[in-house]
Amino acid sequence: MPFDTELTRRLGIAVPIVQGGMQHVGTAEMASAVSNAGGLGIITALIFPEPEGLRQEIRRCRKMTSKPFGVNITLLPALVPPNYDAYAQVVIDEGINIVETAGNSPGPVISKLKKAGCIVLHKCTTIRHAQSAVKLGVDFLSIDGFECAGHVGESDITNFILLSRARQSLNVPFIASGGFADGQGLAAALCLGACGVNMGTRFMCTVESPIHQNIKEQIVKSDETDTALLMRRWRNTTRLYRNKVTEQAIKVEQESKTGEFSEIAPFVSGKRGREVFVNGDPEYGVWTAGQVIGLIHDIPTCKDLVARIEKEAEDTLKEKTGLFTPSPKL
């Protein structure tokens, strides 16, 4: 086992790679495939409208893997917020001891999980939020750079700076998230002080990913310039794949005289986004993707992808040590 980091030791995984929680994607099939490959698979709680759906998915996943896996609970603004406490209780009842949290005001959920003995990985887009999460007792921070898919925060700080700031400022181990797809990226993250990486978009484009093959092929064909930012006007900035619906939504956001979210709501419907992954039409609705799509050129199995990243990272780290030759002692 080439890698021995705080992440692999604490989580009991072979390779320091976490599959981030992804709406519509983080199913038992996805999570078990990543875990069986040696990383940490994650089931996304809010895929399921009711907590009991999450319970059944956890049980399904246990039949697919004997390896560790976790659950993502993301707290986001909503007119009618989900019962986050109930989802957390299902996690605890089912004996899941690794949870990825993210979003607004996570204190009560994190407190509940920590009292139950869970290892909590909390995702942050700024050092200020990371420091607040440390006070809540999280075990790992997932430092999410501006390159990432989905909710990017409002500070626009890319990972090269953010990870170094985390190394300088935090006394809790952290994971690098946003912009990672290969072993060179993993090696770079480790050199910047991270104990592993979190990958979302890269795992979307695998054989086991539960989305339509057309979408996977669209990711392969895309460049790093094929994403767009939406909803900054409402301080809920989100990185999406750039398609005709995203472009229409951007136009409404920029030109709206009222600033009413209702004007843009039909374009950002979660139902339409989910349908993209079912019908395979990348133009049907908005869907999240990170700038890392420019680094994705194939659709491997999770097993092959994780093994390749592990080998690339190992080779890269060995190769780079050769760049330094100690000066002879005088």
UniProtKB/TrEMBL annotation:
CDD domains per record: NPD_like
Keywords attached to this Swiss-Prot or TrEMBL record, sorted alphabetically, are:
Flavoprotein, FMN, Oxidoreductase
One function term, GO molecular function aspect: nitronate monooxygenase activity
Q: Which InterPro entries match?
A: Aldolase_TIM, NMO
In the UniProt record, does the keyword Lipoprotein occur? no
Question: Which segments does the entry list as coiled coil?
Answer: none
Does Oxidoreductase show up as a keyword for this record?
yes
PANTHER family, per database record: 2-NITROPROPANE DIOXYGENASE, DIOXYGENASE FAMILY OXIDOREDUCTASE, PUTATIVE (AFU_ORTHOLOGUE AFUA_5G09600)-RELATED
Q: Which protein are we looking at?
A: Nitronate monooxygenase domain-containing protein
Organism of derivation: Chaetomidium leptoderma
